[in-house]
């Protein structure tokens, strides 16, 4: 068997800044942390990776960043094989890990300068100043990291990850345990980075942040990537729209004249909920309202609602297997 470098991914993935093929990770004890991951991460997008604890999100990021070795498969970052051309691949990547591990006795600025030099980048004081100002750290640039609060240390980790101007930025649970002000600063910076062309991959437990920020959503469950989809498409395909009608008078049951419609009656008999397909051109609402009138059912209020990304995510990870999209 030849040990030469594997071929570069095909032209179909040419717009991808990260290209992952048949990636798997099995630990010595036999635990399969990742299985057959195939994913192209587009240049300049924000991709949110969602999944329960232990699903494989951090393992996947660690392999792409060269921290953990894959059992099988290939990863290219900015055109470089992460195993055969590690230094060039890793230089394109910035990582903000979950854990707070920083050089406690170093000053903030010294840490950033060292990190930038580690990736072979020439000094650029203006860039480092901008990063520190964007993260409200400029006044702390000469402070030793050991003297900073937890929130400030988290800011330093983000600054370190950006010190060498990476094309790809990984944010692994960046909002975990941080204050509202830092979260606001961080997402403001994410938007600016994306506008400047940086590709951002984030894992988060704050699904509302993924819903607001991401261009695409990937869901990992039990080591498998069960869906990757543009956020709007995912919410249209897997979301539900509902029309809730508050009735003038309570009903004991849904009458025969409304049989066959996707209707649910509340326990108190005062609310009817009609669920309709988000992909269908015909919602059926006009027909529903006509049939309600024929049955002499009056309502005093109606309101519509759509599934949130959180509801879609919960439904996806509850499914036993297969791609539901």
From TrEMBL:
Source domain of life: Bacteria
Any GO molecular function: ATP binding
ATP-binding keyword on record: yes
Classification via InterPro entries: AAA+_ATPase, ABC_transporter-like_ATP-bd, ABC_transporter-like_CS, ABC_transporter_ATP-binding, P-loop_NTPase
Pfam families: ABC_tran
Domain ABC transporter stretches: 18-247
Keyword annotations from UniProtKB, A to Z: ATP-binding, Nucleotide-binding, Transport
Name of this chain's protein: ABC-2 type transport system ATP-binding protein
Organism (species): Dokdonella immobilis
